[in-house]
Amino acid sequence: xxxxxxxxxxxxxxxxxxxxxxxxxxxxxxLRFSYIFGASRLKRSLIILFTYAxxxxxxxxxxxxxxxxxxxxPINFMASSxxxxxxxxxxxxxxxxxxxxMHALSIKSDLEIMRxxxxxxxxxxxxxxxxxxxxHSYAKNSIIQKGLIDGSKRLIQEAISQSFDPKEHIHGxxxxxxxxxxxxxxxxxxxxxxxxxxxxxxxxxxxFQSHGLASQIPDIQVLFNDQVSNDFxxxxxxxxxxxxxxATAVPGSFCGRxxxxxxxxxxxSSAALCWLSKLPNEITDSDSSACNKGRIHYTDAPKEVAxxxxxxxxxxxxxxxxxxxxxxxxxxxxxxxxxxxxVVLDSDVDPAKVFELIGTCLVDMxxxxxxxxxxxxxxxxxxxxxxxxxxxxxxxxxxxxxSIEWMEILEFKNMVSLPTVQIFVSWFRAALQGMIExxxxxxxxxxxxxxxxxxxxxxxxxxxxDKLKLDVxxxxxxxxxxxxxxxxxxxxxxxNCLLLNLxxxxx
Length: 507
Known about the structure:
By secondary structure, the protein is α/β, with parallel strands linked by helices. Helices cover 43% and strands 14% of the residues. It has helices at 30-36, 41-72, 80-85, 88-92, 101-117, 143-151, 153-163, 192-210, 232-237, 303-327, 353-367, 373-377, 388-396, 421-440, 445-458, 482-490, 492-500; strands at 12-17, 20-25, 180-185, 220-226, 246-251, 264-270, 328-341, 402-411, 470-479. It is globular and about 70 Å long. Keywords: Magnesium, Membrane, Metal-binding, Methyltransferase, Transferase, Transmembrane, Transmembrane helix. InterPro entries: MeTrfase_7, MeTrfase_capping, SAM-dependent_MTases_sf.
């Protein structure tokens, strides 16, 4: 909230309380004058009331007049457009400033830029993995993700060994060394994020030791990020006792800015970049050719549906890369793992086939009246398995800010063991239960996944590691010099347009 000294403090104090402006009259020398003139108690009371009316009413009107000028003046108060968009609680947190042009322009610059770069995901579109530590929780049903992290351990160690220079983090003495900041994007509830962070921090520690700097290792801070609805309580409850880093939670969508500029030294993300920030609007628009009626995914859907998913994915990845380009320091590292579809032969099984099976279960439940057809038609899973080619094209479209050091495809079949039907079903229940409960209600979840288990038995190829063409593209990028990061801001629109025009084969 903006406040200024329009009346001397000896007369008024403008105070904001519970969203209302209250005018207090302080130090009014009424009693002093009344005593000088020898007035009686009754006369003194009347003088006080008259004086309060004389000063309070004009002061109140003056306050509102000046407030109106502050909000509407086009030069001195340019921050008004930003302030109007903030909630009352956010306004209360703004600093109290004097009415100067410099301060107003500063607010405009900082808040407007932040507002444009932050991607606010509506709570209705914020889906997290199943929290807690129960039998259906993500913490108990994420063995497949653990396999991906174990499979990439060697590559993470090599990337840090080749590109992380410990001398850049030493500034003469320990007191002046800045912390090494690592962000894990899409951390969920653990424990897989802990395994990944252990690999990264131990590799960094080894780098310092190999350079003879073991005694000068700076503090390491790990920033755990996921959706605002993520169960961070379970995550922090299970933090490893012997960790060598400080832990911080950063809720929010990684498709927008999450951290201050040039503060991150390393960004890691595993199996999270396949999730869309939102469903394309046309998917549930009955008047659109991309309306996905009777299905919950682009699998086996018309081309328009697949194109809508692909377009949204390109937008999200463009926003993701642009945000990281500003947050990473020069020569900072990004270690990303993309689940990708690698279907070549007719006998190959698309990993997205699983959503077709779940969709048929929902349609069957609608036919017997357990749920409505309208509910099924308005439900879609915001997840995509892009092709390797599509991911490479998107990444190369951001070469102004990043240099792609290398990419390597990890075969899914070499990273996980053959699951049972129950384990396989539990994987997807942990991932989808939250959004299913929010859309259909918790009462249908058990029946849905019982039906899904029967579908998996009818179609066992979905669990055949040799036929299921789900691979992982491990990609190492290095942020270019700071000048290129600044240039990236100036060319955001052109780059995003380029990304939107790239070809994309998601099926």
